[in-house]
Amino acid sequence: MVNRKLQSVAALESYRAKIAESQKNEYPVIYVCGGTPCLAKGSSAVAEAFKKEIESQGLACKIELRHKVTGCQGFCSKGPVVSFGNDIVYLEVKPEHVPEIIEKTVKNGQVIESLGYKDPQTKKRSASFQGIPFYAHQKGMILKGLREIDPFEIDDYIARGGYASLAKAFSIDPDKIIDMITESGLRGRGGGGFPAGTKWRSCRAIDSEVRYVLCNGDEGDPGAFMDRSIMEGNPHAVIEGMIVGAWAVGAHHGYAYIRDEYPLAVKVMKKAVEDATAMGLLGKNILGTGFDFDIKITRGGGAFVCGESSALMRSIEGKVGEPRAKYIRSVEKGLYDLPTVLNNVETWANVPLIINNGPQWYRETGTEGSPGTKVFSLAGKAVNTGLVEVPMGTTIRELVEKVGGGIRSGRMFKAVQTGGPSGGCIPESLADLPIDFDSLSKAGSMMGSGGIIVMDEATCMVDVAKYFISFLAEESCGKCTPCRDGLPRMKQILTDITEGRGKEGDIELLEELCDVLSYGALCGLGSSAPNPVLSTIKYFREEYEAHIRDRRCPAGVCRNLVTFHIDADACTGCTLCAKQCPQACITGERKKAHVIDQSRCIKCGVCRDVCKFDAVRVE
Amino acid sequence: MGIDIRKIDEIIERYDKSEESLLAILQDFQHTFRYVPEEGMKRVSEVLGVPESKIYGVGTFYKALSLKPVGRHTCKVCTGTACHLKGAHTLTDIIGKELGVEPGGTTKDGRFTLQTVNCVGACALAPVVMVDDEDYYEGSSPQDVLKNLRKYK
Amino acid sequence: MEKITIKINGKDIEAVKDQSVLEVARENGFAIPALCFHPEIETRAGSCRVCLVEVSQNGRTRLVTSCNYPVRKGLEVRTDTDLVRRIRKGVVELLLSRTPDSPVIQKLARENGIEKSRFFVDEGEHYRNRCIACSLCTQVCEEVVGVSAISMLDRGRDKAPGTPYLKPSQVCIGCGACAYACPTDAISMIDEGEVRKIWGREFKMVTCSVCGKPYIPEAQVDWIVKTTGKDRSFFDKCPDHR
Ligand SMILES: Cc1cc2nc3c(=O)[nH]c(=O)nc-3n(C[C@H](O)[C@H](O)[C@H](O)COP(=O)(O)O)c2cc1C
Ligand code: SF4
Ligand code: SF4
Ligand code: SF4
Ligand code: SF4
Ligand code: FES
Ligand code: FES
Ligand code: FES
């Protein structure tokens, strides 16, 4: 390989100018989404079709064209997504659409409205980012890069201003950098919302030869994928942030800890580190400044608890990922007992923005206490789901109704769950709450890393609590008594309630156990485990009582407490349910009302989910 | 079971001789042999100078590592939050019935290991089934998933 | 050693900076229960959670485990508040559900006013028996004996100590230090004639040439000779007859 090492800040700038120049001569770029959901929906076939079409038409000589595979473009539920630099975006694109797109959009700049977004209410179509509510209400500070940059191409990143913050940072005193981060009000995006500047300052203040800078890419929240998308879609932004952080705190070694279940993220990050090293942006004597910093990639081992800071550090050391008491903080005694700064993927990705544009600019977005934007993975029962980024302070309702497009199949919006297993459920009645670190905590939930799960009337809150507690019981490291032995018992009580064996006093017993965990557990996994239970008891107590007293599941979820039957008036006899029923216990002739054989029904609910006419009823 | 000791050494060779490499080496064993063999752990202990007890402790702690061989294909049903709300557990039951195994189990012919995992980052497809960490299937129609699974030999 | 003054239950107490609250409290006659604490072991895992106390420092009050909380200037400790009692009782009730047959835990439960656990009880489940997963045994083996024959295995409620591959350990020297350290007597060590059984392995014992009592495993003698260079003949007699 040729030596591409950039020897100085000036060399970086002239290199940038060179690639920008060479990219300018190009014609419209077609961005084909290469995020996991789009790939699953066939985006590689679409990309392939573009390639073929471009070649067969011999466009290469007339109009030079490239198609690019990018990170997730956000609108995963409507994938494969194809967009163009000029505000046009097509959804649910199939290979057969490709010739038309080439003909109209690429050659003639026409918009094909029929490939755009169809508003479920107005039935109007739009193929522009601005015209689609899902995109129009977002602010893409972090995600912008994901839509435009080929994550495997460092040049792509550099052409769009990548690594510019280094040039600036290296000319500023580290203490001043920390001041900038502090002034920006940047708070950790990994859940706790701890001020990043404060953390960096304490680490720098410790007298030590060696310090470490770590990136938490463990993303253990079982309903979240923002960090994954950032690492897969714009890895260099994370690396750039880490270099700035290392410079600021005086660290020469870094680690990125990435969840093992994200093979693509590991691959992309590894390649990015190699490329950055080859270009002299990582390694010894970065950009000729004399500053050394390297990053190693560690794959996680499949343990939620390893997202917790002290467990993560043990895991990097090659040990069992058990947390430690943190009476001495990890900025003081972290990895290998040396001063360590650990920040989340998204936190790091914010850093270059702050250095490039200044803290004041950063504070213009978001709220006083929580500046900037937050990336969420919006999932659950909303019409539109995917990766979204909104300014902090956006209300839950705006997020669910505008970006999310409301609830699917016209059901009622019931609650959102934020913060994953450490968070809680916030009822619709509080949906006007602004989303920021402090408001969510006050409501008994928390920001967490950014999973937002939308729930409708067909979501049982006791079942949700049971789900999270079962998850945590599996993931408890087993070190301390309250969590190790308390969670299985909470799970048992919740299971009894959902299976019709609930007793008076169970709710109080749960509350008692919650206290033992909040006060007694060693780490955050155990001490925040009560949130899903306490928040659902607080806002949906009557649902618990219905299970316990009336042996009834109002949402129609808990199998032992419900029966399914088909409403003969509503059933059109489309046979869909009969085809999908795993028990084959639905019978009926085409165009005639169908019937469920109750003796064989396992109450899986598939029929209800597939029925397009809402004819399957549960009681 | 015959495990090729040269393969074991090849994997160990890729990494620095320090405890820090332990997890990565065991993961590579997992990918290569479809489990973490006892011979491998013994060898790692010798080379890295880490007591076998610690290596075994690590081997039993992390879910990504399995001490028993898994099937030729892994079928992972996502039971993350979004998938749970959309019926992932039923889907697991249905697939388990088809394959004749419980989650965590391997079919008698060694064709499939069925696992449940947390969010695989494709919630838009919920409930999601992932085969061999490569192929993703939307699970809202279980019968279609079963049809797809039959393709894997 | 920096001397400092702290307050325990309102009383001024002299202490050495960074000593644990538990040790300072016990030296001064305050009773705090503790299961996973062992004075000779440096790792303070803080896993059993029965040694909880309330501390206030810099205007912040919280519950901490006294066995690994370092004393610093101005610290105020309360060992017997309502909160401490309530949470400790909860912890002990959970331990009682985990190991209902352990006399140590039964006694602790009675002291905390618990008759019977209200939760489901783990009965004689697999190998873990009376083990409360405190990890003292593995720490003794590693830090004091220097052998690392056992480690904590699995996670969550299955967590328990064991040998590699659950097979008899090749490196265990049969010293029994783990069994002596265990707070709940959960490790089975049986001395029968000239044989000691522990962790699934049998060790031949050396007999005292004076009293004829088997008193130390041969493997342990080998280990001591190897690591300290002591003369083998030293072990001909048991400590009582040296
Ligand atoms: C049980 C548990 C799991 C966690 N999982 C994650 C995670 O997956 N990703 C993450 O960034 N932070 C996670 N955290 C928070 C981290 O401990 C830590 O606070 C964070 O990475 C710090 O970075 P930040 O300040 O940039 O958010 C977890 C915490 C706990 C207690
Ligand atoms: S709270 Fe749970 S995860 Fe944390 S140390 Fe205790 S047992 Fe382990
Ligand atoms: S609930 Fe499931 S088993 Fe019962 S009829 Fe519907 S699809 Fe069949
Ligand atoms: S008996 Fe074996 S396991 Fe126990 S402390 Fe001694 S060497 Fe370690
Ligand atoms: S056997 Fe005893 S010392 Fe070892 S972990 Fe269990 S309770 Fe603790
Ligand atoms: S993966 Fe394509 S939009 Fe998310
Ligand atoms: S919850 Fe299943 S993919 Fe996210
Ligand atoms: S003695 Fe302190 S936690 Fe066990």
From TrEMBL, chain B:
Q: What is its EC number?
A: 1.6.5.11
> Which cofactor is recorded for it?
[2Fe-2S] cluster
Which InterPro entries does this entry report, sorted A to Z?
Answer: NADP_DH_HndA-like (IPR028431), NuoE-like (IPR002023), NuoE_dom (IPR042128), NuoE_N (IPR041921), Thioredoxin-like_sf (IPR036249)
Q: One Pfam family this chain carries?
A: 2Fe-2S_thioredx
State the UniProt keywords alphabetically: 2Fe-2S, Iron, Iron-sulfur, Metal-binding, Oxidoreductase
MF term (GO), any: 2 iron, 2 sulfur cluster binding
Coiled-coil region(s) = none
Record NCBIfam families: PRK07539.1-2
Family statement drawn from the similarity comment of this UniProt entry: Belongs to the complex I 24 kDa subunit family.
Q: What is this protein called?
A: Fe-hydrogenase gamma subunit (NADP-reducing hydrogenase subunit HndA)
Per the UniProt record, the source organism is anaerobic digester metagenome
Gene coding for it: hydC
TrEMBL record, chain C:
Domain (4Fe-4S ferredoxin-type): residue spans on this chain:
162-192
What are the residue boundaries of the 2Fe-2S ferredoxin-type domain, all occurrences included?
Answer: 2-83
**Do you know which InterPro entries this protein is assigned to?**
2Fe-2S_ferredoxin-like_sf, 2Fe-2S_ferredoxin-type, 4Fe4S_Fe-S-bd, 4Fe4S_Fe_S_CS, PSI_iron-sulfur_center
Alphabetic keyword roster: 4Fe-4S, Iron, Iron-sulfur, Metal-binding, Repeat
Which PROSITE patterns does this chain map to?
2FE2S_FER_2, 4FE4S_FER_1, 4FE4S_FER_2
GO MF annotations, alphabetized: 4 iron, 4 sulfur cluster binding; metal ion binding
Q: What is this protein called?
A: Putative (Fe) hydrogenase (Or NADP-reducing hydrogenase subunit HndC)
